[in-house]
Design goal:
3 domains, five-stranded mixed beta sheet, 5 strands, globular
Length: about 325
């Protein structure tokens, strides 16, 4: 398991974060079906005869309010640099293993109907998730006589970057602020978001989650962007990390962050990766782009993208980005 996955998993072991996911990220009509205060984690050491243990998924049960029954949330973490076209097929296997786990733990009695499972993919990559969400969308045309015998599986996609671009997730709750941290716009922005985390995790009941956020920030968030000339924090204490992040200039952070995104973008084309990352920075800084601005980005050469990426540090308006910043005019 990677460093990122290990620390991300620590965060999503806490019911407060899952509660925020239900209350603030999932559609309201769905969240009203359950009582988030009844959340309970279920072990997910899924091991099949020909399958490896799954360390990146979570199984939570929560009581439904529409009936005396339980809903299970199967959450799969995806930190790949690109979407996975076969994700619906993978979820078929994971859901089957989840049912086996529930039966092994005697949470499904003999003769009892199988519980409802809601499969969720949390995706934090830069490239937008643009592959089918259902098994049926992947299959060839099925004769009508055989349709009843085909597998059916769809999953809920939470593409963090897309949700942020579309302004559909706020940074005023634990799940939303984590998404914004994953797609932060610089050291100062990250420091403000970490301050929000600290404010939302006051109280002894949040001590473990606050420590998990500090550990994730230290081992995952900061190393990929921390200024080379400065030592990394040697503590998991969130308050100390916030103090350290506020003393470094945002230019160093943003330059390194952009380079990280460009490295990831090489897999889909260096130029497209640069353009997509700059586009996201512009949207976060200045709001939705006009059609003219979108075309300007798509037609720009690599050297022009590089210049605009530097201009964004000091620009006060979008015109400053295009023209070199207010101090150059």
């Amino acid at each position: 398991m990677s460093q990122h996955d290990r620390h991300y998993r620590q965060l999503f072991r806490d019911p407060a974060l899952i509660r925020a996911l239900i209350e603030h990220i999932l559609p309201p009509a769905w969240s009203r079906l359950v009582d988030p205060l009844t959340l309970e984690a279920i072990p997910t050491d899924h091991v099949g005869s020909r399958m490896h243990a799954r360390n990146g998924d979570f199984l939570w049960r929560v009581r439904r309010v529409d009936r005396q029954d339980t809903l299970y949330l199967l959450i799969l973490m995806e930190h790949q640099s690109r979407p996975d076209r076969l994700m619906p097929v993978r979820f078929l296997g994971y859901t089957g293993l989840a049912f086996e786990t529930l039966a092994r733990l005697k949470l499904i009695r003999p003769g009892q109907p199988l519980p409802v499972v809601l499969p969720i993919v949390l995706y934090s990559g830069l490239k937008r998730w643009n592959v089918p969400l259902g098994v049926g969308d992947l299959q060839d045309a099925v004769p009508q006589e055989l349709q009843a015998y085909q597998p059916r599986m769809r999953y809920v996609l939470l593409d963090e970057g897309a949700l942020i671009e579309q302004d559909r997730v706020g940074a005023d709750n634990l799940a939303g602020v984590l998404f914004h941290l994953e797609h932060n716009q610089g050291l100062e922005h990250a420091a403000r978001l970490l301050q929000t985390v600290y404010r939302l995790t006051q109280g002894p009941e949040f001590e473990e989650l606050r420590r998990a956020f500090g550990s994730w920030a230290r081992h995952v968030l900061l190393p990929r962007a921390w200024p080379k000339h400065a030592p990394l924090p040697a503590t998991d204490d969130l308050k100390e990390i916030i103090t350290m992040t506020t003393v470094h200039h945002s230019r160093d952070w943003t330059l390194k962050y952009r380079q990280e995104g460009w490295q990831e973008g090489k897999q889909e084309g260096r130029e497209e990766g640069r353009m997509l990352l700059l586009r996201r920075q512009l949207i976060h800084r200045f709001g939705p782009l006009s059609l003219e601005a979108e075309q300007r980005l798509k037609q720009a050469a690599a050297t022009q993208l590089e210049a605009w990426s530097l201009n964004i540090f000091t620009a006060q308006t979008l015109d400053d980005v295009w023209n070199g910043g207010p101090e150059q005019r």
